[in-house]
Amino acid sequence: MSPKLVMSILGRFLVAASFAFVVGWTAAGCSHPEQPSGPGSAGSTGAAGSTGSAGTTGAAGTTGSAGATGAAGATGVAGTTGSAGTTGAAGTTGAAGAIGSAGTTGAAGTTGAAGTTGSAGTTGTAGTSGGTNLIANGDFSQADTNWNAQNGTATVTNGQYCFSAAAGSSILIGWGSMTVSATLASGQAYTLTYQASSSGPLSVKMHVKVAHAVAPYTPDDYETSPDDQLGTNLQTFTHQFTPTSADDITGVAFTLGSTTGSGNSTVCIDNLTLTAN
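The chain above was modelled as a monomer; its predicted structure follows.
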């Protein structure tokens, strides 16, 4: 309740009280009583003045309505997320260098014997020519197809063409025929590679000849000189030559150049390649 309202009520109450007092006093004692001639009865007691009604209680001040709650501030729209930077395309991968087909003669690795010598890895020399191998089935992956043995017997063992040789043996191992052969061009350089080994008591040298595959077996395109000395482990031998005339039915022949000692040795041939340089 406000102080002003309290004061107003208090003022009204005092005025009413004062008024009641005056009225009561006037009625009770202001008039002079007659002098009794004798012991008269007590004068009538004046009625009590009317009690002033209580001042009107001021109505409680109007409670101010609560202030309007301010609306929440509008939430700012999130800033637009920048799109991710364009990812640079991967650099073009350079094409792999062409693999020389001679590398396909890696079949030597599949023969357990070659793996034990470690020398088979040197067959990578043929890959330097980068040309196509003109010898079909030079790795004996198709058994002895396109191969033949004369003056003896040869069989494919562990992926190698092997035969038994005695001192003075005249066995001939040949590749090529009228139906399957290589074609050589005059003046073109070629690389011939093969692997061979000899296990046993004999010292063996291999003679290799590249020539016409059918009678009259000429021209001779190339033959080794000196011959290749074989060891007990499979070795790689490489020869380069340039024929002086063209040959469209070319074959390859292996013969024993020389043998010294006594007894028999097992000779094996593998991975024959002939490529143009």
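Residues 14-64, 66-82, 84-129 have pLDDT under 50 and may be disordered.
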